Amino acid sequence: MSLLPISIVSFLFVFFSVAPPFITAATNDDLPTAYSLLQSYNFPVGILPIGVVSYDLDKSTGKFHAYFNNSCSFALEGSYQLDYKSTISGYISENKITKLTGVKVKVLFLWLNIVEVTRKGDELGFSVGITSANFAIQEFYESPQCGCGFDCKDSRSKSEELGRNPFVSSI
């Protein structure tokens, strides 16, 4: 009888020593980034600021959540202020994000929720429900940074060194 417990312990030790290569669990290293996921649905990476730490996606419904360590705000040229909560969510499909929550834009003195993003050719449409605005897709080839958008000293100096416009992709 005393051999049985030793055999079980030995078996478990060998199993757990050998098993990890055969166990497949989705880790963050196994998943594409949130930015490459956007590209797989035909969106440019720049609709998300730098700093997404994780996300989840239900491929059967398109329901997603993207997570930042903190909320993220920045201004863009042309008087737009954007605010991303620490968690944003919605439904994504080819060329369309619907029921978006967690992203606001300040227009004049009003904060409005961006509820839908669509891509039509080389334009992105951002809807706040009652109205929408279209922008050229090349303005979103790079992701802005929280706090400073595209006007960050580090990104500006790199862009100036390379002699390129920060709104145009180098790809």
Automatic annotation (TrEMBL):
Keywords: Signal. The keyword Transferase does not apply. SUPFAM superfamilies: At5g01610-like. InterPro entries: At5g01610-like, DUF538. Residues 1-25 form the signal peptide. It comes from the Eukaryota. This is DUF538 domain-containing protein. It comes from Arabis nemorensis.
